[in-house]
Amino acid sequence: MGLVSKFLGIIIAVSGIAILFFGSSDPVWSFGYYILGLILMSVGLTLVTSRQDAKDKKPPPPTVTEIRCDNPECTFKEIRDFQKGDYILKPMDAQCPKCQSSMTIHGVYVVREEEPE
Ligand SMILES: [Zn+2]
Fold first, then answer.
1. Do 68 and 106 touch, CB atoms closer than 8 A?
2. Residues 72-95: tens digit of each pLDDT
3. CA 21 to chain CA centroid, nearest Å
4. Distance of CA 26 from the midpoint of ligand 1 (Å)
5. What is the distance in A from the centroid of ligand 1 to the CA of 90?
6. pTM to 2 decimals?
7. Ligand 1 geometric centre to CA of 96 (Å)
8. What is the CA(116)–ligand 1 centre distance, in A?
9. Do 47 and 88 share a domain, yes or no?
10. Do 6 and 45 fall within a single domain?
């Protein structure tokens, strides 16, 4: 199925390009052929590339953020789901629930299912 649509896409794109290049010599029709060629080409290329896109659109791997308390005396550490905007050494708004110190992100990890810690 994927191969068929890819093949079809190539045929449509190539015929679009052919129309663009060899379009009608009649000036009244040449503009219409030009548009038709462009449309065919984009439709064909969409067909060819859409399969690739679908393949690349895997769900992102689960990512976790490690937050540690800034107080060296305190051992508080929290692992939570990665949130947009998280980065290593980003100061957190939240306070340590143990000692009320500020907290900083110490790591962002991609969780690999095949090698659990
Ligand atoms: Zn703390």
1. yes
2. 999 999 999 999 999 999 999 999
3. 35
4. 80
5. 16
6. 0.47
7. 5
8. 27
9. no
10. yes
